[in-house]
Specification:
Layout: E1 10-12, H1 13-19, H2 24-32, E2 39-41, E3 44-48, H3 49-58
Antiparallel strand pairs: 1-3, 2-3
């Protein structure tokens, strides 16, 4: 899974949506439920690459 995600420190919600990993609305819900860690710069949410990978690995069915 790690090779599918570009080597960057963090991603905006829009970038993750464009990459096909998670929709913006779903990501916002998960952040609100504290199931996905994020940080804000201004009004934009960002998610660390490691947190994206951990979330995907933890939720693979």
């Amino acid at each position: 899974m790690e090779e599918l995600l570009p080597r960057r420190i963090s991603f905006s919600l829009k970038e993750l949506d464009e990459l096909g990993f998670i929709k913006v609305t779903t990501a916002k819900k998960l952040i609100k439920l504290k199931k996905l860690r994020s940080f804000k710069v201004g009004i934009k949410h960002f998610i660390l690459r490691d947190d994206v990978l951990n979330y995907i690995e933890d939720n693979l069915s």
